[in-house]
Amino acid sequence: MTSADARSFGRTSVGNAVAVIAALGCECKPYVDVFTYRRWQAQGYQVQKGEKAIKLPLVRTVVSKDKLTGEDSPRRVLGSSAVFCRCQVKPSAS
């Protein structure tokens, strides 16, 4: 992932933006100053030791073939995503 790719989003979630704003005690803005660990790394930053992630709910749709009918069977899978704000990262040493 390039640095430019790490700063762009194909889609956004109002619910996630509200959750991030509620969890932050700083002026960081969702989708501008808040990214996942891998997106921060792609931009040349490292999350500082001891920083705690903001957990966001994650719902994915997984499609699998039904063994009896052979039809696609979509189902929702719940999980979470961890994000960090600009205040929690520093430029990488490399």
The gross shape turns out to be elongated
User: C-alpha Rg, in Å?
Assistant: 17 Å
Which runs of at least 5 residues are low in confidence (pLDDT < 50)? Answer: none
Spatial arrangement of strands, main beta sheet? 1-4-3
- Kindly, what is the distance between the CA atoms of the first and last residues, rounded to a whole number of angstroms? 17 Å
Into which percent range does the helicity of residues fall?
10-25%
Largest sheet: 3 strands, antiparallel
Give an overview in words.
With 94 residues, this protein is α+β, with helices and mostly antiparallel strands. It has a domain of 64 residues. It is 21% helix and 37% strand. The chain has 3 helices and 5 strands. It has a 3-stranded antiparallel sheet with strand order 1-4-3. It has a two-stranded antiparallel ribbon with strand order 2-5. The radius of gyration is 17 Å and the shape is elongated. The two termini are 17 Å apart. The mean pLDDT is 85.
